[in-house]
Design brief:
By secondary structure, the chain is an all-alpha fold. It is built from 19 helices and 2 strands. It has a two-stranded antiparallel ribbon with strand order 1-2. 47% of the residues are buried. The C terminus is likely disordered.
Length: 415
């Protein structure tokens, strides 16, 4: 299914004269990667299936290959970046799995390689999706969302002023958190998967599954509900396409919203906030980790919320939708890992209905939300809390049952 999706996205991108995710990922075997950290994070994820000696050799090989690439680029006066080595080592392990491994060992190594490649390709897939949203959705719904956001007190405008007041220190800190979200996810995932090398099997449910599904389904919502964000629609980044240069000083006035034409470059990637959804997933999966990782998960969620709002990338109602979106996907996958648990499925359906209700309300009742904030503001928050409450109640009811994250039996891997 994953290969079919990538092939379809590659074909769609070609129709719009854009490089697809497969092409862009293949280019990074030779050309400078956009960022090396996600590629090394993918390599780290793959190495959970290796022994300690194999990990040292793999990491050393990746660093050695990158050193060679850096030397060539230095002589050629090209952009100095790293990450090619990690991709080459991941590919080498795929070759080893197919030619030197058999049975369970081959399947286990291929699973590790598959997770690594999926995580690496997810970034390219997201970039391609965003370009497609800009090309295929000439009009955006920012006026609807900005109007609805009055019910929550225009939090992007408030947090934007706070972040600006923190100066360069706060800006650089939040930007680092925002851009390296996948690396934080890998750290939590590696802890969850730390027993794979010894058990020779993967747990049934872990963070990577949720992370990838959020990234797979989210852009589809972007296509249905295209929004560019306040810093573009109401700020300097929007250029002459912006309604006015209002963000973050002056919230937009309340009035009947309309579809708003925008350029063919800016991604329509606001509704829901996937960064919030991913940070929520990291927070959830860090709860059964050591104190340091629990603290990191909490910090990453809070800092991500600050970045998404403070940089003007999202409205407040996007954040609410992102939390509901993440919890719905998480409980669905968690329930599926337990064997389609009834209580889990009921919670997932509740989350899906709340998510749909939120989007319909933002789209068709934004003026009512703005004019009656004391009704709609608490209602939106209560709906989100209801999903959180159902999620907590369901997962707590599972705690006394057999572990849903138990290891997959070896016989299952061999079939």
């Amino acid at each position: 299914m994953g290969l079919g999706f990538l092939a379809a996205l590659e074909f769609t991108a070609r129709r719009y004269s854009l490089p697809g995710p497969v092409t862009k990922q293949a280019e990074e075997f030779i050309f400078p990667p956009k960022s090396g950290f996600p590629l090394y994070a993918s390599l780290a994820l793959m190495m959970v299936v290796l022994t300690r000696r194999q990990r040292v050799i793999s990491l050393g090989a990746a660093i050695g290959i990158d050193a060679a690439f850096l030397l060539v680029r230095w002589f050629a006066d090209a952009r100095l970046t790293f990450g090619n080595g990690a991709l080459w080592v991941i590919a080498a392990h795929a070759f080893i799995a197919l030619t030197r491994r058999t049975g369970q060992e081959r399947i286990l190594l291929l699973k590790g390689v598959g997770l690594a490649l999926l995580l690496a390709a997810a970034r390219k897939t997201g970039e391609t999706w965003l370009l497609i949203t800009a090309k295929t959705r000439p009009a955006v719904l920012d006026q609807y969302v900005a109007t609805a956001d009055h019910a929550l007190g225009n939090p992007s405008w408030v947090v934007g002023r706070i972040v600006r007041a923190t100066g360069t220190v706060g800006t650089h800190l939040l930007n680092g958190v925002y851009t390296q979200l996948a690396v934080a996810a890998v750290v939590i995932a590696i802890y969850q998967l730390r027993g794979v090398a010894q058990e020779r099997a993967f747990p049934r449910h872990h963070l990577v599954r949720t992370f990838l599904v959020i990234g797979l389904l989210g852009p589809g919502i972007y296509m249905l509900f295209p929004v560019v964000g306040p810093v573009f629609a109401y700020g300097v980044h929007g250029g002459h396409w912006a309604m006015a240069n209002l963000w973050p000083d002056v919230p937009p006035s309340i009035g009947p919203p309309r579809h708003m034409p925008f350029d063919e470059i800016t991604p329509r990637n606001c509704m829901p906030s996937l960064h919030t959804a991913w940070a929520t997933a990291i927070f959830i999966h860090s709860r059964r980790s050591p104190r340091a990782l629990r603290f990191a998960g909490t910090f990453w969620l809070i800092a991500t919320l600050g970045a998404t709002l403070g940089f003007g990338y999202h409205y407040g109602v996007d954040i609410v939708a992102g939390v509901v979106f993440a919890l719905t996907i998480e409980i669905f996958l968690h329930s599926q890992a337990r064997g389609w648990d009834r209580s889990g499925m009921q919670t997932a359906v509740h989350g899906a209905l709340v998510f749909a209700a939120l989007l319909l309300t933002y789209r068709f009742l934004p003026l009512h939300m703005a004019r009656l904030p004391w009704i709609f503001g608490p209602a939106v928050i209560i709906l989100m809390i209801s999903v959180i409450r159902h999620y907590r109640r369901t997962t707590r009811s599972w705690e006394s049952a057999p572990s849903v994250t138990g290891w997959i039996p070896r016989s299952s891997l061999e079939n």
